[in-house]
Structure formats: structure tokens, C-alpha cells
Amino acid sequence: MPLMNRLGLLALFLATLAIVNSCGRTGMGGSSGRASAGGRAISGGGLTSVGGWASSMGGQADAAPQGAAGGTGGTTTGPSGDAAWLGGDGATTSGDAAWLGSDGATTSADSSAVRVVDVSAGSYLTCAVLSDGTLRCWGNGYGPVPAVVSKISRAIAVSVGSEGGSSGLVASAHVCALIADGSVQCWGNNADGQATGTQSGGDTSPAAVAGITSAIAVSAGGQHTCALLKDGTVQCWGANSNGQLGNGTTSAPGPPTAVVGLGGAVQVSAGASHTCARLEDGTVRCWGLAPGLNSTPGDIGVSDVVDVSAGYQHSCVVFQDGSVACWGCIYDNCCGPGFNCGERPGTAKDPSVSQAVAISTGYEHRCALLVDHSIKCWGNDGNGKLGIGPSDWYAEAGSINSGRVVGVTQGVKVVVGYDRSCAIIADGSLQCWGAGAANGGTTSSGVPVPVTGL
To answer: Has domain 3-109+116-450 been given CATH number 3.30.420.40?
Structure first.
């Protein structure tokens, strides 16, 4: 599709963006969302591809909003166990793992053609949801080859905690999976109740989080977790010493509680010790440990936002015009180019990024999915986590490496972890770069490599 045609679709795509980069994009900066302006929530929180519309696997059938995906207003359906995808030209498809390419060419497959539908990366752990509803993880605790997580079925999204908590040091992660029936199952580190909602359990066996029955998205932070519910409210559980649960207190960890005064949410993103939510009117509220924030949601003064991501000590937003703004501190480069060090984004936008549709933030770097399906990453390039070639650290104090990820031209989702990044490709495959890029091993790669064994 010519670039100008793609740009012509940008406004329509951004207006109907449900959750590109959604459903637990990563532990730090993990983000989950539902459809906002132009379309109602996809039951179960599906995935929207660039220029297209996707119904959630296992969710109820939903109609794509008129004008979505090239203006056809076509409907994609998602009967139980199926994942229906719509290509950039808006042709309609349904059925098990049916995919359309960016130009609308059908690449449908039967149930034997399992595709990656969601992915999340933490510090040394990566997990992927497949179109058959199973979940596979690799890295810390699982070994170098993707292993099936037992007791998980009909999963539609996954979120891996940042594994570092507020200290940034590597520790055991917690993982949460969103199930098609609206429940959330978590396991792993539960020292602060971030997995089960109580300070008990939390081993390698997934367990349902009590009281969460209508979730459409989940996001795991450092030591807390938040779920977006179908009614537009958000509930959080786990550590609360910095007010990251948004319940108006900094009391001891507890079970899921509603974020005070927050309604109309369409996306939630849990960072290391703070949380942000995007509302259906395009504004953003944040709370927790970050400059100017406290234990209740505060308006950060932006509008026309289509995506938000909370990272380690920083956050970023994507605006409807494709521009990006970030604020806070990013490791030792708190005041780098295109970065506002204050408590709010302000009016300054990152001059090096345009035509963005989604963003994912981590500990020392961030990546944006662009409207042409390419990906741009910037920040610290240790272990090659920017995907721009041979690994390099900051060239000099105050500078930031940046560039397009090598070889990715058909990306539909990007996630950023502590020391790696991953992208779902339009054909349903997965590529990662950075530390242990391919399969959780010890070898780093400065360019994307396919993840095998899924």
C-alpha cells in the first residue's frame, strides 16, 4: 500500500485503535486496553493490528466500527477458540486463526496453524499467547525453550511483571494471564500479593484472582497488578507503599480494590511503582511513585492520546497525530533529547518520532510501532535491545541511541522488557532482540531473530 494511502488511513486507524500494543505489553510499561472512540470494547480485550480490526479469541463477536479498517465497516467474528483478523484494506474474515495481510490478501489457516496473538517481556522472562489459547514462557524459571504453562487454556493476553520492583534489581517475576471468560490467573512472585491478591500462594501454579470476573485487560507492574474491567473501571492489587493501587492510601498490600474516582478507562498500564490509565475522552490519569503523583489518579494534562505506557520511572504517550511525548527519568539519562524531566509531559514532544500508533516503555529504552508497520526504538542499547544493529551504549553523556529496528516491516505489536524487545509480525510469528533474544538463552542480538518452538 503506498505511504500516502497509509497516512490517509491514520486518522481512521487511530480513532478506532482498540489495543495495538495491548493486554500486558510488558511488565514495566505493561499496557492493556479496550476499544474507545469509534468502537465498543471487544469482549475479552482482543488485539488490533495496524490498519485493521481484530476480535478477541474466545470473546463474543463484535462489529468493527463503521469506517474502521479502510472504511468498509466489515465485521470480524471470534467464536470460542477462534481468532479473526482483519487486514489493512478492510476485508472481512472469520474462523480459526484466520489472518489477512496488510493489503487485505487472505492468509487464512486451519486450526493447525497456530499464531502468536500476544506477548509480554519482563527482565529475564518472556511469555506468548497462541491462537489456540495456550500460553508458553521461556527464560527465568522456564529454560531456554518455550514451555507450555499448565492449567492455562483460552488465554487471550499475558502480562509479565518487571521482576525488579521499585529497586530495579532482578528478582522473581509474577505473570498474569487474561482468560476469555473475564477472569485473571496469576502465578510467580507473590511477596506483596501481586499475583493472588493475598500474601499467600503465588507459586508456579496459576490461580484465579478472587473477585476479578469481568476483566478485559490486565497489566503486571513491578510489585502490583491492575485489571481493566468491562465497565471502564480499574482494580489493582499487590504492593501499595507508593500508592500504586490508586485507592487513596499507602496501606499494606491487599486484595483487588477499585481505583478511586476512575471511570471511563479504556487502557491501563502498570509501571514499576506507578500506574497510568487512558480514558475514553483521550485524557490520561496516573498515580503512584512518580514526580507529582500520589495515591489517587491525577490528570497529567494531555488530550487526544491514543496510547500510554508506564515504565520504570518514566511514562510515554502517543497522540492522535502520531507524535510522542515522554516524561520522568530513564535510568541515568533523565533529561535526554525529547524527554521532559518534570512531573507532566508538558508541551514538548519528541522531535525524532512521528507517525506512531503505539508505544512500549521499559527500564532504559522504549519502542514505538509506526503506521507503516515498522518499529523505532531509542534509549540505552545495551545487549542490542534497540534492534538497530551491533549493541552500543550511550555514545556520550546526554545522547540517546535511536533508529528503526532492522528488518521489521510488517510489525503489528511491539513490547519492551528490561533487556529485550519483541514484535509480533503480521504473519503471526514472533521476533525478539536484545538479551537472550531467540529463546531465553545467554546470547544477545542487536537485530531481530525468530523465536522458535512456539
So the answer is: no
